[in-house]
Design goal:
mainly beta, Immunoglobulin-like, 5-stranded mixed beta sheet, 4-stranded antiparallel beta sheet, 9 strands, about 55% strand
Length: about 130
């Protein structure tokens, strides 16, 4: 296949997220982010920034970064974010994927945080 003189190889990133539909206060919430490079060049120094909503807590605060040093064409990378449900409501986890300082993708997932656990229910332990 001849190379197109105007074509410059470049990475093309996509971001998908999944999490629980609903949890109770005190539960650990696991959110999995999948970053995929469908372009024809490697992506270097990719940054996933997740903004933790008030209904959830994370040990590093309200803005959590995950860095990927290099993602080859056709490769994907998964990042897990563990938070704890702290107050009831609908938590909106917003994430931004950046490459070379520019946003290349966004993701928004919701988890419903229900009130406290029924009496006598054991508290789950984070892993």
């Amino acid at each position: 296949m001849p190379l197109d003189a105007a074509h410059i190889p470049r990475p093309l990133l996509s971001l998908n997220a999944r999490t629980s539909n609903s949890v109770r206060t005190g539960d650990v919430v696991t959110t999995v982010y999948e970053i995929r490079n469908t372009g024809d060049a490697a992506a270097e120094e990719v940054i996933l920034t997740v903004y933790v909503p008030p209904e959830l807590q994370h040990k590093y605060g309200k803005e959590v970064e995950h860095r990927i040093q290099r993602l080859q064409p056709g490769e994907s990378h998964q990042a897990r974010l563990l938070t704890r449900a702290s107050t009831s409501g609908t938590a909106q986890l917003e994430a931004v994927l950046s490459l070379d300082g520019a946003a290349t993708g966004e993701s928004r997932v919701s988890v419903r945080v229900l009130g406290g656990r029924p009496a006598g229910s054991p508290q789950p332990r984070p892993r």
